[in-house]
Amino acid sequence: MKDKDKNLTDDNYDDDYLDDYEEYEDDEYYDDDDYYEDEEEVENIPLKEDSPSNGSNGSNKDGEENPYYDDKSVDDGNEKFDKKMAHFSLPNLRDKHKKSGKNNRNQKKTPLYYILTFFKKLLALVGTTLVSIFLILVITGTVCVVAFVIYVLSFMDTTTDVNLTEYEMSYASYIYTVDSDGNEDLVYKVKASDGEQRIPITIDQIPQDVRNAFVYTEDERFYAHDGVDLKRTLGAFVNIFTNIYGSEQGGSTITQQLIKNITGDNETSSERKIREIFRAMQLEKKYPKDTILESYLNCIYFGRVDNNNLNGIGAASIAYFGKSTSELSIAEAACLAAIPKDPFLYNPIDNPEENKTRQEYALSKMFENGVISPEQYEEALNEELIFTDSDEFKELYPDFKLFDEEEEEIEYDEDGNPIESITPYYVDAAIYEVRDWIAEEEGISQEDALSKFNKGGYTLYLTIDLDMQAYVDEKYLDRDNFLTYAKNSEGEYVQSSFIAMDYDGNVLAMAGGIGEKETNLGFNRAVQTQRQVGSTMKPVAAYGCALYNDEITWSTLFQDKGFLVDGKDWPSNYSTYGNSLEWTYNYIYVYDALRRSVNTTPANIVNEMGLETVFDFSKNKLGLNLVSPEEAANGVGDMTYSSLAVGGLYGGTSIEDLVNAYMPYGNGGYFQDAHVISRIENSATGEVLLDNSDSSHKEQVIDEETAYVMNKLLRQVITSGTGTAANLSNKTVCGKTGTTSDFNDITFVGLTEDFVSGIWVGYDTPYGLSPSLSSAQIWKNVIGGYANSLDTDASYPECDTVIEAHFCTSTGLIATSRCPQSSEVGYYKSSNATYCGRH
Predict the structure, then answer these.
(1) What is d(CA 587, CA 602) in angstroms, rounded to the nearest whole number?
(2) At CA 215, angle to CA 280 and CA 163, rounded to 5?
(3) In the prediction, which pLDDT does 96 show?
(4) Is the predicted pLDDT of residue 249 greater than 90, yes or no?
(5) How far apart are CA 670 and CA 657, in angstroms?
(6) 243, 246, 251, 253 alpha-carbon torsion, rounded to 10°
(7) Which of 105, 196, 460, 476 sits CB 3.0–4.6 Å from 511 for a disulfide?
(8) Is the Cβ–Cβ distance between 448 and 439 less than 8 Å?
(9) Which pLDDT band, with edges at 50, 70 and 90, does 683 fall under?
């Protein structure tokens, strides 16, 4: 070892000593503080100054003597330096290491050391791994929670809110007419699909024992939770994996079951369950518990009895026990409470033993929750139940009929097949009308709206006058009233439609076609046929607009000539005098042009006033269903001279729409949309959903003077114009005829003091009619006799401000004493009564 030390240099040393040195550095006896303390002492020892540049006597390089140089102190310092450096030599360090007993190179490591070292490293590895796993789980859990929150929030945004007041619950829908004495007559019933029966009842009609039977059987914490029973939901989830309940455990509360029944959302998925949970919580925030329980008991399914699907406890009470819900005993209530879990398995008539077992469970839950006494519990367990199918019940109640329904009289054809009852046209019209109303109210398609109506829940009261309707129906069975038996090229007979309404828009009668009606919800020409109206357009467009805006008077003069439209002379005349296809260039008074149905006068009025002005008047004042340029495929629609002057409409209109537009001319200027439905109610609650009898729907669209003068102008058509055939002896008829240029369609609109009505005649496949056909005469054949027979005090509204006067035959202005006066009297609005100043 000593020889080895001698050979140790700065650049060549044995690795063993380096190992010893390193081990020594790690030794517990090695103190870094001592090392650095020694190092500071070394730094404070003056170095040997034996460099030739310094000189031996401490002089500087220039040979000058250093006054501070002390030979003795330098020697002492050098000695200390040598000693201190020796302290740090490797041999000394090694010796010190040996003395400390820490010679690791020669010391043997025991098995315990290796075991401890292994477990130390293992624990460190396990700890690091567990920490890593924990952090991964935390991060993953955080991501999952965030994702779940986002997922749930997205369902909250898209989950449709449930409104109990708008829920129909598949009650039957009814359509009633009301006679003159106020008596209601059921004319149509829309049964809910699959023969479903419901009898709605309110919560105060349900005894507390009945409520308790369902609550403590189906959802015993109903009054405590907020729509979702977390304990029950968790139990249902655990039961999926453990089956601790021995059968499928439901987690739905009464509120959740109600949601499922309302929405019909039966999808088996987590998404559906989340939707249901949120909807249930929302429902609980909006409605009190009793309202929710009432809706639940009115909609749950109770099985089937005598081909009737029972929905709601009202129907179930009658079907199973023949009594109302308010009369149920505790035992009977528990029997019904047993059914909803499985309406087929627990049907007490079909499976009495299974129902009895479930009934006893219901009674035990009521007893456990303290809502019945021990005596009531025992009494209910032992009570014998009498069902409607039992001999005992039939003996007690021999006249009992389920739901008190009368048996329908069924007619059969010659082959013995049942004849389907065909709905009248006015019922079809009512169904179409309620369909359109539902679609508009709920923003859904007409198809979906009709489906919703057919599911039930609506009661409709109609405006139909049954006496007038019977009269019109009879007339439409006889083709003689329509003056022709000619067929078109398709082999079709002439068809027709008719509608009558009072001056509040109430439809009194209608006909959708000539002959027997053959189908339900078939094509109703009165409300669905869109055809050209010809000259019946003039009073509700050109003449009406100009009179309303004081652009014309009774006797304003217009020259009988047209103008160029698209480079051609337009329009042609189809009047009762002169060359019917050419202009006369004569000057014509307004009243004369209207009664003779001259085309050039309304054309010139529209040309002077502008298409937009006349279009706006017809569409927005009188409610005509005109097509705007934005709506039309050709970009023009009814914004044309042909449409607004002579009735050559872009897509046509219905006779209902046309007659409706004439209404203000018989009632002083008021308009209300025509309607065959007077009122719509919720079948379940009786709540009025729509009331058309409300006067707030009626709007004055033109002033009473305009309405009065136009009424007088239309009277001229009947007394001395194209509509003389419609004149009646007992009524003051006002009206207008209409014929299209190709004679494909003829129309007439007539007003009496009692109502306004109109008729259309033509072929379903357009084809030229005989020019000799008179629409005024056909109108009279259909409704004239009935109208003339009415003995009422009705009259057209008077207007004292309108001026009645003769006019100057030269200028058309109100005549003065100096003017050549007309023999006829004219009617002038006070706002446009100009006297002649020429004479």
Answers:
(1) 13
(2) 30
(3) 52
(4) no
(5) 15
(6) -170
(7) 476
(8) yes
(9) confident
Closest CA to 156 of 270, 262, 274: 274
Q: Which residues pair with 807 in a beta bridge?
A: 814
Q: How far apart are CA 780 and CA 24, in angstroms?
A: 132
Distance, in Å, from the CA atom of 8 to the CA atom of 729, rounded to the nearest integer, reads 151
Q: CA 537, CA 748: separation in Å to the nearest integer?
A: 10
- pLDDT at residue 166 in the model: 55
- In contact, 603 and 563? CB cutoff 8 Å: yes
Q: What would the DSSP string read from start to end of 664-678?
A: HHHHTSEE---BSEE
Q: What is the CA radius of gyration of the chain?
A: 51
Closest residue by Cα to residue 530 from 457, 428, 638: 638
User: Could you give the CA distance from residue 338 to residue 270 in angstroms, rounded to a whole number?
Assistant: 28
Q: Which two tokens stand for residue 204?
A: 């105060």
Farthest CA pair distance, the chain: 164
CA–CA distance, 741 with 753 (Å, rounded to integer) = 31
What is the tens place of the pLDDT at every residue in 258-292?
A: 888 777 666 666 666 777 787 888 888 889 999 99
Q: State the DSSP code for 620.
A: I
- The arithmetic mean of pLDDT across residues 694-708, rounded, is 92
- Percentage of the chain with pLDDT > 70? 77
**What is the rounded CA–CA span in Å between residue 305 and residue 318?**
10
Cβ atoms 542, 614 nearer than 8 A: yes
**Residue-averaged pLDDT of the chain:** 83
Residue 285 CA to residue 263 CA, distance in Å, equals: 18
Single-letter amino acid code for the residue at 305: V
Tell me whether strands 173-178 and 458-462 are parallel, antiparallel or unpaired.
parallel
Whether residue 479 is predicted with pLDDT greater than 50 in this model: the reply is: yes
Distance CA 294, CA 279 (A): 17
The first and second tokens of residue 551, run together, are: 């652009």
Lookup: tokens for 626: 């005109």
**What region, left, alpha or beta, does residue 202 occupy, with left being phi > 0 and alpha being psi -120 to 50 degrees?**
beta
Nearest residue to 318 (alpha-carbon basis) of 145, 201, 427, 410:
201
| pLDDT tens, residue by residue, 621-680 | 999 999 999 999 999 999 999 999 999 999 999 999 999 999 999 999 999 999 999 999
Tell me the two tokens of residue 298.
């009115």
Helix (H, G, I), strand (E, B) or coil at 342: coil
Torsion from C-alpha of 659, 665, 670, 674, nearest 10 degrees? -10
Residue type, 163: N
Helices then strands, each counted (H, E), the chain = 30, 21
* Burial class of 90 by CB neighbour count within 10 A (0 to 12, 13 to 18, 19+): middle
**449: CB partners within 8 A, 6+ apart:** 435, 436, 437, 438, 439, 442
Whole-angstrom Cα distance, residue 550 to residue 440? 37
| Spatial distance between the Cα atoms of 799 and 724, rounded to a whole number of angstroms | 25
Q: Which amino acid is at 137?
A: L
Would you give the end-to-end CA distance of the chain in angstroms? 158
In whole angstroms, what is the distance from residue 549 CA to residue 608 CA?
12
Residue 198 CA to residue 403 CA, distance in Å, equals: 9
Q: Can you name the residues that pair with 173 across neighbouring β-strands? A: 190
Residue whose C-alpha is closest to residue 664's, from 715, 712, 703, 716: 703
Cβ atoms of 195 and 402 within 8 Å: the answer is no
Which amino acid appears at position 261 of this protein? N
How far apart are alpha carbons 87 and 92 in whole angstroms?
A: 6
CA distances from 220 to 184, 231, 234, 262 (A): 45, 11, 15, 22
